[in-house]
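[audit] Reproducing an earlier prediction to check determinism. Same input, same settings, fresh worker. If the tokens differ from the archived copy the diff job will pick it up downstream; this log only records the rerun itself.
[audit] input (393 residues):
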Amino acid sequence: MPDFDARSLELHEKHKGKLEVRSKFPLRDRADLSTAYTPGVAAVCEAIHQDPSKAKTLTIKANTVAVVSDGSAVLGLGDIGPLAALPVMEGKAVLFKEFADIDAFPIVLDTKDPLEIIKTVERIAPTFGGINLEDIEAPKCFEIEDALQDIGIPVFHDDQHGTAIVLLAALLNACKVTGKKPEDLRVVINGAGAAGTAIAKLLRCVGQNPDVCVPVRDILVCDTKGIISRQRTDLNNAKKMLLIYTNRDDHTGSMEDAIRNADVFIGVSVADLLNEGHIKSMAPDPFVFALANPKPEIMPDVARAAGASVVGTGRSDLPNQINNVLAFPGIFRGALDAGATRITEHMKIAAAHALAEGVEGLSPEKVLPASLDRSVAPRIAEAARKAWHEMPV
């Protein structure tokens, strides 16, 4: 097996990172210079001054996304700071370009203060057509994203919503291959951070028709202290908000109590959390989406041997990879093409359905397209674009 660590270090050192800037304008002679810069550029400046909306057709704002992070929750590495986060943000920018032809640029911020992050994004927003928030720890990621929804361009925290969109698509197709109905499912989510919260929110609207909101039967969310319930006195505001649409019967207890007779387990937590006994305690033929990386909450072969009908992880070397790259390039492509000012719940649900419908050869081992499937982003982009025009609020 290749040594990806050594190979990655070698290539990053050789190329000094993964990105470069190239001019779209030729500079062969003085006429070219006068067109790209002074005096010709003054006409472009005046046009935008008279009509600011022309920035979207005359500048890079038309097709540029900022990938913004404070480095407080990077991959499985945790709070490693902005400099150490920069290679990940560069990688995200490469994925934007590769899958959706979007020019993305990494912006790492030397502050962990949510108000400072909000102010900084507001100040740089004129340059960009969208903002992708990345690897910012919960619960402040919720505050930051919510505060930036009215700056005139889409702001999308991918760790939340990208994961939720791909997970919903996998869940829809797991139902198709097993004959189960989404609205009959009792779901347990272990992990109440950014991804777990967004998944819980999106599961409020499932079903085969993206225009009809049908919630799953019930959702229980667990943190390190067990089921998030109304009986707990240690909940922060983000966890209290979860109770608006989860745990309708106010169950209490441990994660083990929650998973008993559940139809679906979704893990966004820690490795080796589950064993065969946990899976056997679930309802017949359960779905298990164990997304801890690099090692999942339970390995797929163990889960299947214990009775799981559909299993997914976050790993590329295992079937049914829940990978955000299946969602965020297309979502932003559609938002930019639509001239959207935000990314709505309707756009996210439409994206999940478009992703689910794009799987050929659907089976329990294939409920999602491959992460490198180049047909995914255009399909999601069109679904998101249409959803914005159909329901732009």
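[audit] rerun output stored. Observation attached for the diff report: Residues 158-178 form the longest helix (21 residues).
[audit] end
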